[in-house]
Design goal:
The protein is of the alpha+beta class. It contains 3 helices and 4 strands. The protein has a single domain (about 5-105), classed as 2-Layer Sandwich (Ribosomal Protein S5, domain 2), CATH 3.30.230.10.
Length: about 110
């Protein structure tokens, strides 16, 4: 994804997380924060050490990025999003990751 779609700064992560507008399923937690100044959505990914070693965490992040790339046309552009992976994600395939992300986004009403 392009740099303009990413959230990288700790302050931005904290602002979104402390808003406490969260939704979850078995494999992902989503925090959302309305952002009116954006032309498109912005997203930050978080994969903690409970997921596994560095190789596993990087694999999970790649799967998450690819899934978001495939879903980006359907995601509502009015939000900043933080997507956090839960420990069960490490065993999933790309299609399963995409379906889980799509499911949690539907719960949060940020996907069309």
């Amino acid at each position: 994804m392009k740099k303009s779609y990413r959230i990288k700064k700790e302050k931005e992560f904290q602002k979104i997380i402390y808003n406490k507008d969260s939704y979850a399923n078995r494999n992902f937690v989503v925090y959302i924060y309305p952002a009116k100044e954006n032309k498109h959505f912005r997203i930050g990914l978080s994969v903690g050490k409970k997921i596994g070693n560095a190789v596993t965490r990087n694999r999970v992040k790649r799967l998450m990025r690819e899934s978001l790339f495939q879903l980006k046309d359907n995601i509502n552009s009015d939000y900043n999003i933080v997507l956090i992976a839960r420990p069960g994600v490490a065993k999933l395939s790309l299609d399963e990751v995409k379906n889980n992300i799509q499911h949690v986004f539907k719960i949060a009403n940020i996907i069309e």
